[in-house]
Design a protein that fits this description.
The chain is of the alpha/beta class. It is 42% helix and 15% strand. The chain binds nicotinamide-adenine-dinucleotide (NAD). Nicotinamide-adenine-dinucleotide binds next to helix 1 and strand 5.
Length: 259
Protein backbone atom coordinates (compact mmCIF):
# COMPACT_ATOMS: atom_id res chain seq x y z
CA UNK A 1 0.00 0.00 0.00
CA UNK A 2 1.31 3.47 -0.93
CA UNK A 3 2.02 6.18 1.65
CA UNK A 4 -0.78 8.37 0.20
CA UNK A 5 -3.54 5.79 -0.15
CA UNK A 6 -6.95 7.46 0.27
CA UNK A 7 -5.48 10.98 -0.03
CA UNK A 8 -6.59 13.60 -2.53
CA UNK A 9 -4.29 16.11 -4.22
CA UNK A 10 -4.72 19.23 -6.35
CA UNK A 11 -1.89 19.85 -8.81
CA UNK A 12 -1.40 23.29 -10.34
CA UNK A 13 1.18 23.70 -13.10
CA UNK A 14 1.24 20.83 -15.59
CA UNK A 15 2.07 22.23 -19.03
CA UNK A 16 3.53 19.11 -20.67
CA UNK A 17 5.39 15.86 -19.90
CA UNK A 18 8.52 17.80 -18.85
CA UNK A 19 6.71 19.83 -16.19
CA UNK A 20 7.89 19.36 -12.63
CA UNK A 21 4.21 19.18 -11.64
CA UNK A 22 3.74 16.16 -13.91
CA UNK A 23 6.63 14.28 -12.26
CA UNK A 24 5.13 15.09 -8.86
CA UNK A 25 1.68 13.98 -10.03
CA UNK A 26 3.00 10.63 -11.22
CA UNK A 27 4.71 9.99 -7.91
CA UNK A 28 1.66 11.00 -5.84
CA UNK A 29 -0.53 8.74 -8.00
CA UNK A 30 1.93 5.86 -7.57
CA UNK A 31 1.66 6.33 -3.79
CA UNK A 32 -2.12 6.01 -4.02
CA UNK A 33 -3.40 9.62 -4.15
CA UNK A 34 -6.39 10.66 -6.27
CA UNK A 35 -5.54 13.74 -8.31
CA UNK A 36 -7.16 16.92 -9.59
CA UNK A 37 -5.23 18.81 -12.28
CA UNK A 38 -5.72 22.41 -13.24
CA UNK A 39 -4.51 23.86 -16.50
CA UNK A 40 -3.94 27.24 -18.08
CA UNK A 41 -6.16 27.41 -21.17
CA UNK A 42 -3.44 26.96 -23.78
CA UNK A 43 -2.24 23.76 -22.04
CA UNK A 44 -5.62 21.99 -22.05
CA UNK A 45 -4.89 19.42 -24.77
CA UNK A 46 -1.55 18.43 -23.24
CA UNK A 47 -3.02 18.00 -19.78
CA UNK A 48 -6.05 16.02 -20.99
CA UNK A 49 -3.79 13.75 -23.08
CA UNK A 50 -1.37 13.13 -20.19
CA UNK A 51 -4.08 12.37 -17.64
CA UNK A 52 -6.43 10.12 -19.68
CA UNK A 53 -5.11 6.93 -18.07
CA UNK A 54 -5.16 8.18 -14.49
CA UNK A 55 -8.10 6.65 -12.63
CA UNK A 56 -10.56 9.16 -11.20
CA UNK A 57 -8.53 12.25 -12.15
CA UNK A 58 -10.34 15.59 -12.31
CA UNK A 59 -9.17 18.07 -14.94
CA UNK A 60 -10.20 21.70 -14.49
CA UNK A 61 -9.36 25.02 -16.16
CA UNK A 62 -7.81 27.62 -13.85
CA UNK A 63 -5.96 30.82 -14.59
CA UNK A 64 -4.41 31.66 -11.23
CA UNK A 65 -4.79 35.38 -11.95
CA UNK A 66 -8.57 34.96 -11.85
CA UNK A 67 -10.33 34.92 -8.47
CA UNK A 68 -13.45 33.42 -9.99
CA UNK A 69 -11.45 30.61 -11.64
CA UNK A 70 -9.84 29.86 -8.28
CA UNK A 71 -13.23 29.92 -6.51
CA UNK A 72 -14.79 27.55 -9.04
CA UNK A 73 -11.78 25.21 -9.00
CA UNK A 74 -11.75 24.76 -5.24
CA UNK A 75 -15.56 24.45 -5.12
CA UNK A 76 -15.42 21.64 -7.69
CA UNK A 77 -12.56 19.91 -5.85
CA UNK A 78 -14.50 20.18 -2.58
CA UNK A 79 -17.61 18.66 -4.16
CA UNK A 80 -15.84 15.85 -6.01
CA UNK A 81 -13.24 14.94 -3.39
CA UNK A 82 -15.11 15.80 -0.22
CA UNK A 83 -12.02 17.59 1.11
CA UNK A 84 -8.38 17.94 0.11
CA UNK A 85 -5.15 16.58 1.62
CA UNK A 86 -2.44 17.87 -0.72
CA UNK A 87 -1.89 21.02 -2.79
CA UNK A 88 1.00 21.34 -5.24
CA UNK A 89 1.85 24.87 -6.45
CA UNK A 90 4.12 24.57 -9.49
CA UNK A 91 3.23 27.79 -11.27
CA UNK A 92 5.37 30.77 -12.23
CA UNK A 93 5.46 33.45 -14.90
CA UNK A 94 7.19 36.75 -15.69
CA UNK A 95 6.79 38.70 -18.94
CA UNK A 96 9.81 37.96 -21.16
CA UNK A 97 10.96 41.57 -21.60
CA UNK A 98 10.97 42.11 -17.85
CA UNK A 99 12.63 38.77 -17.16
CA UNK A 100 15.42 39.24 -19.69
CA UNK A 101 16.00 42.93 -19.02
CA UNK A 102 17.86 44.59 -16.16
CA UNK A 103 16.17 44.41 -12.75
CA UNK A 104 16.53 48.19 -12.47
CA UNK A 105 14.37 48.54 -15.60
CA UNK A 106 11.54 46.14 -14.71
CA UNK A 107 8.15 47.70 -15.49
CA UNK A 108 5.51 48.13 -12.82
CA UNK A 109 3.12 45.86 -14.74
CA UNK A 110 5.82 43.22 -15.26
CA UNK A 111 6.56 43.21 -11.54
CA UNK A 112 2.88 43.00 -10.64
CA UNK A 113 2.23 40.16 -13.07
CA UNK A 114 5.26 38.14 -11.95
CA UNK A 115 4.41 38.53 -8.27
CA UNK A 116 0.72 37.86 -8.87
CA UNK A 117 1.21 34.59 -10.79
CA UNK A 118 4.28 33.33 -8.97
CA UNK A 119 3.71 34.35 -5.33
CA UNK A 120 0.25 35.77 -4.59
CA UNK A 121 -1.32 32.70 -6.20
CA UNK A 122 0.04 30.50 -3.39
CA UNK A 123 -1.75 32.62 -0.77
CA UNK A 124 -4.92 32.68 -2.88
CA UNK A 125 -4.85 28.88 -3.22
CA UNK A 126 -4.00 28.26 0.44
CA UNK A 127 -6.95 30.34 1.68
CA UNK A 128 -9.34 28.39 -0.53
CA UNK A 129 -7.75 25.03 0.35
CA UNK A 130 -7.92 25.67 4.10
CA UNK A 131 -11.57 24.64 4.71
CA UNK A 132 -11.15 21.59 2.46
CA UNK A 133 -8.03 20.50 4.35
CA UNK A 134 -9.63 21.26 7.70
CA UNK A 135 -12.39 18.82 6.73
CA UNK A 136 -9.68 16.14 6.46
CA UNK A 137 -7.96 17.06 9.73
CA UNK A 138 -4.96 18.75 8.08
CA UNK A 139 -2.97 18.78 4.88
CA UNK A 140 0.27 19.47 3.05
CA UNK A 141 0.98 22.34 0.67
CA UNK A 142 4.16 22.25 -1.43
CA UNK A 143 5.42 25.07 -3.70
CA UNK A 144 8.32 25.07 -6.15
CA UNK A 145 11.07 27.62 -5.78
CA UNK A 146 14.68 28.24 -6.82
CA UNK A 147 17.95 29.37 -5.20
CA UNK A 148 17.80 32.61 -7.25
CA UNK A 149 15.48 33.88 -4.49
CA UNK A 150 18.40 34.09 -2.01
CA UNK A 151 21.50 34.41 -4.19
CA UNK A 152 22.01 36.49 -7.29
CA UNK A 153 21.70 34.23 -10.31
CA UNK A 154 22.31 36.28 -13.47
CA UNK A 155 19.42 35.70 -15.88
CA UNK A 156 16.94 34.81 -13.12
CA UNK A 157 16.36 38.50 -12.34
CA UNK A 158 12.72 39.41 -11.70
CA UNK A 159 11.85 35.77 -11.02
CA UNK A 160 14.33 35.80 -8.12
CA UNK A 161 12.39 38.68 -6.60
CA UNK A 162 9.11 36.79 -7.08
CA UNK A 163 10.54 33.61 -5.54
CA UNK A 164 11.75 35.58 -2.49
CA UNK A 165 8.12 36.67 -1.99
CA UNK A 166 6.93 33.10 -2.52
CA UNK A 167 9.34 31.78 0.12
CA UNK A 168 8.24 34.43 2.63
CA UNK A 169 4.64 33.48 1.88
CA UNK A 170 5.49 29.83 2.61
CA UNK A 171 6.73 30.78 6.09
CA UNK A 172 3.79 33.05 6.93
CA UNK A 173 1.29 30.51 5.62
CA UNK A 174 2.95 27.83 7.75
CA UNK A 175 2.24 30.01 10.80
CA UNK A 176 -1.30 30.88 9.68
CA UNK A 177 -2.37 27.35 8.86
CA UNK A 178 -0.33 25.42 11.43
CA UNK A 179 -3.15 25.31 14.03
CA UNK A 180 -5.23 23.46 11.41
CA UNK A 181 -2.37 20.96 10.99
CA UNK A 182 -1.85 22.21 7.46
CA UNK A 183 1.87 22.15 6.62
CA UNK A 184 3.42 24.45 4.02
CA UNK A 185 6.86 23.83 2.53
CA UNK A 186 8.89 24.74 -0.52
CA UNK A 187 11.14 22.63 -2.72
CA UNK A 188 14.07 24.60 -4.09
CA UNK A 189 14.90 22.59 -7.20
CA UNK A 190 18.05 22.70 -9.28
CA UNK A 191 17.69 23.66 -12.95
CA UNK A 192 15.57 21.39 -15.15
CA UNK A 193 14.72 21.53 -18.85
CA UNK A 194 11.07 22.62 -18.89
CA UNK A 195 8.96 25.08 -20.86
CA UNK A 196 9.40 27.81 -18.22
CA UNK A 197 13.15 27.24 -17.96
CA UNK A 198 13.48 28.31 -21.61
CA UNK A 199 12.77 31.87 -20.51
CA UNK A 200 15.74 31.88 -18.13
CA UNK A 201 19.11 32.60 -19.70
CA UNK A 202 22.28 30.44 -19.37
CA UNK A 203 20.59 27.15 -18.47
CA UNK A 204 23.21 25.04 -20.30
CA UNK A 205 26.00 26.84 -18.42
CA UNK A 206 24.14 26.14 -15.18
CA UNK A 207 24.03 22.40 -15.92
CA UNK A 208 27.78 22.36 -16.58
CA UNK A 209 28.59 24.36 -13.46
CA UNK A 210 26.46 22.14 -11.22
CA UNK A 211 28.12 18.97 -12.52
CA UNK A 212 31.50 20.46 -11.63
CA UNK A 213 30.68 22.18 -8.36
CA UNK A 214 27.71 20.57 -6.55
CA UNK A 215 28.77 18.18 -3.77
CA UNK A 216 27.13 15.26 -5.59
CA UNK A 217 28.70 16.39 -8.95
CA UNK A 218 25.42 15.87 -10.80
CA UNK A 219 22.28 17.56 -11.98
CA UNK A 220 18.83 16.52 -10.82
CA UNK A 221 15.78 15.15 -12.61
CA UNK A 222 12.08 15.93 -12.45
CA UNK A 223 11.49 12.57 -10.76
CA UNK A 224 13.94 13.51 -7.97
CA UNK A 225 11.61 16.43 -7.22
CA UNK A 226 8.61 14.09 -7.41
CA UNK A 227 10.15 11.83 -4.75
CA UNK A 228 10.82 14.76 -2.43
CA UNK A 229 7.30 16.16 -2.90
CA UNK A 230 5.78 12.76 -2.08
CA UNK A 231 7.90 12.65 1.09
CA UNK A 232 6.74 16.15 2.11
CA UNK A 233 3.11 15.04 1.69
CA UNK A 234 3.58 11.78 3.59
CA UNK A 235 3.22 11.05 7.32
CA UNK A 236 7.05 10.84 7.50
CA UNK A 237 7.14 14.66 7.20
CA UNK A 238 4.40 15.24 9.81
CA UNK A 239 6.44 17.80 11.80
CA UNK A 240 8.02 19.63 8.86
CA UNK A 241 6.54 23.01 8.00
CA UNK A 242 7.65 26.49 6.92
CA UNK A 243 10.79 25.04 5.36
CA UNK A 244 12.55 25.25 2.04
CA UNK A 245 14.08 21.86 1.16
CA UNK A 246 16.73 21.77 -1.57
CA UNK A 247 16.62 19.24 -4.39
CA UNK A 248 19.86 20.45 -5.96
CA UNK A 249 22.58 17.84 -5.32
CA UNK A 250 23.82 20.14 -2.53
CA UNK A 251 24.72 23.04 -4.83
CA UNK A 252 23.31 25.65 -2.43
CA UNK A 253 25.91 24.90 0.27
CA UNK A 254 28.83 25.94 -1.92
CA UNK A 255 30.63 29.26 -1.64
CA UNK A 256 33.33 29.11 -4.29
CA UNK A 257 33.43 26.58 -7.12
CA UNK A 258 36.30 24.23 -7.93
CA UNK A 259 39.80 25.74 -7.88
P1 LIG B 1 6.42 24.52 -16.66
O1 LIG B 1 6.41 25.53 -17.75
O2 LIG B 1 6.22 23.12 -17.05
O3 LIG B 1 5.34 24.89 -15.55
C1 LIG B 1 4.96 26.22 -15.25
C2 LIG B 1 3.46 26.21 -15.17
O4 LIG B 1 2.96 27.49 -14.76
C3 LIG B 1 2.79 25.89 -16.53
O5 LIG B 1 1.97 24.77 -16.40
C4 LIG B 1 1.94 27.12 -16.80
O6 LIG B 1 0.73 26.82 -17.48
C5 LIG B 1 1.69 27.62 -15.39
N1 LIG B 1 1.20 28.99 -15.36
C6 LIG B 1 1.86 30.13 -15.70
N2 LIG B 1 1.02 31.17 -15.59
C7 LIG B 1 -0.18 30.69 -15.17
C8 LIG B 1 -1.45 31.27 -14.87
N3 LIG B 1 -1.67 32.58 -15.00
N4 LIG B 1 -2.44 30.45 -14.46
C9 LIG B 1 -2.26 29.11 -14.33
N5 LIG B 1 -1.08 28.50 -14.59
C10 LIG B 1 -0.06 29.29 -15.00
O7 LIG B 1 7.82 24.72 -15.92
P2 LIG B 1 8.41 24.09 -14.57
O8 LIG B 1 9.87 24.31 -14.68
O9 LIG B 1 7.86 22.74 -14.34
O10 LIG B 1 7.88 25.10 -13.48
C11 LIG B 1 7.15 24.69 -12.33
C12 LIG B 1 7.63 25.44 -11.09
O11 LIG B 1 8.95 25.01 -10.78
C13 LIG B 1 7.70 26.95 -11.24
O12 LIG B 1 7.31 27.55 -10.02
C14 LIG B 1 9.18 27.18 -11.48
O13 LIG B 1 9.59 28.48 -11.13
C15 LIG B 1 9.75 26.15 -10.54
N6 LIG B 1 11.16 25.78 -10.74
C16 LIG B 1 11.61 25.41 -11.97
C17 LIG B 1 12.95 25.08 -12.12
C18 LIG B 1 13.49 24.70 -13.49
O14 LIG B 1 14.71 24.75 -13.69
N7 LIG B 1 12.65 24.28 -14.43
C19 LIG B 1 13.82 25.09 -11.03
C20 LIG B 1 13.33 25.46 -9.77
C21 LIG B 1 11.99 25.80 -9.64
Amino acid sequence: MGTLEGKTAAIFGVANHNSIAWAIAQKLAAEGARLAFTYQERMEQNVRRLTTNLDGALVLPCDVQSDSDLDTTFERIGQEFNGLDILIHSVAFAPTDDLKGRVSKVSRTGFTTALDVSAYSLMAMAGRAEPLMQARGGGSIVALTYLGSERVTPGYNLMGVAKAALEAAIRYLAWDLGPQKIRVNGISAGPLRTLSARGVGNINDMFTLIEEVAPLRQNISQSDVGELAAFLCSPAAATLTGDIIYADAGFHVMGLGTM
